[in-house]
Amino acid sequence: MLIIGIAGGTGCGKTTVVNQILDQLPEGEVGVISQDSYYKDTSHLSYDERIKINFDHPRSIDFELLETHLRELKNGNPIDQPVYSFVKHNRTGDTVKTHPRKVMIVEGILILTNPELREMFDIKIFVHADSDERLIRRLKRDISERGRDLDEVLSRYQNTLKPMHQQFIEPMKEYADIIIPNNKYNTVAVDIVKTIINQRLI
Ligand SMILES: Nc1ncnc2c1ncn2[C@@H]1O[C@H](COP(=O)(O)OP(=O)(O)O)[C@@H](O)[C@H]1O
Ligand SMILES: Nc1ccn([C@@H]2O[C@H](COP(=O)(O)O)[C@@H](O)[C@H]2O)c(=O)n1
Predict the structure, then answer these.
(1) Ligand 1 centre from 185 Cα, in Å?
(2) Which reaction(s) does the protein catalyse, per the Swiss-Prot or TrEMBL entry (predicted)?
(3) How far apart are CA 170 and CA 41, in angstroms?
(4) For residue range 155-193, what is the model confidence (pLDDT) as tens digits?
């Protein structure tokens, strides 16, 4: 199994890059795990308590479960990937059966901050987009898809997202094998990653 970790700040285009990679690759050969599925269970908290959580700090992620799941997949076993709701700020209780594939992609803002996970990645990719570009994309996406309003996105950006990005995410570029510049759609870089994957699938 080839395990590829794709990190980068919110709105840099990780999900988009993953979808571009999956596009035209043989179906069923490449699997995806999203770090978002592994936000810690917050069922014991009220909604008002949940919205105060710093979701850009590594402690908000259940890295233990993510690592266990990745090891299971590596050992050839399927896992039940939790489904996360950005509207409820909690897991939904549903899971998605995720089967081991020849190539597994793990994507998320904080995945390179965890040394054990880093160790498991054969290829580490960092997707870069400038912070103003990311904020614009985040605003549009969170308002249209994640049930947020302008004030919520901007206050989260100023209070937690920006400082956490500077402290935990940006320094992870140091560990990247490949940095994809993604201020504009970058088909060349995506094609290079696809070529690497195709070589593994032969
Ligand atoms: N290169 C790009 N140029 C313009 N918009 C982009 C680009 N890459 C992604 N987007 C858009 O930005 C938003 C956030 O992208 P997404 O892939 O969800 O980022 P991430 O998973 O890193 O948070 C989406 O609406 C997506 O369509
Ligand atoms: N309940 C939550 C959980 C996380 N977030 C934000 O999601 C961002 C990470 O997801 P991307 O798809 O953008 O990589 C992160 O910056 C968290 O602030 C949230 O808003 N609500």
Answers:
(1) 9
(2) uridine + ATP = UMP + ADP + H(+); cytidine + ATP = CMP + ADP + H(+)
(3) 26
(4) 999 999 999 999 999 999 999 999 999 999 999 999 999
Pocket, ligand 2, Cβ cutoff 6 A: 10-11, 14, 36, 39, 55-56, 86, 89, 109, 156, 161
CA 18 to ligand 1: nearest atom: 17
SS3 (DSSP) at 93: strand
Question: What pairs with residue 125 in β-bridges?
Answer: 6, 178
CATH 3.40.50.300 fits 2-201, yes or no: yes
pLDDT of res. 26: 85
| Residue type, position 137, single letter | R
Residue 25 one-letter amino acid: L
Neighbouring residues of 128: CB distance < 8 A, sequence distance ≥ 6: 8, 12, 173, 179, 180, 181, 182, 183
pTM of the full structure? 0.96
Confidence of residue 27 (pLDDT cuts 50, 70, 90): confident
This complex has an ipTM of: 0.97
Q: How confident is the model at residue 46 (pLDDT cuts 50, 70, 90)?
A: very high
Query: So what's the pLDDT on residue 33?
Result: 97
Q: Are 138 and 160 in contact (CB under 8 A)?
A: no
Q: Is the pLDDT of residue 125 over 90?
A: yes
- Is the per-residue pLDDT at 202 higher than 80? no
Report the greatest alpha carbon distance in the chain. Answer: 51
Q: So where are the chain's domains? A: 2-201
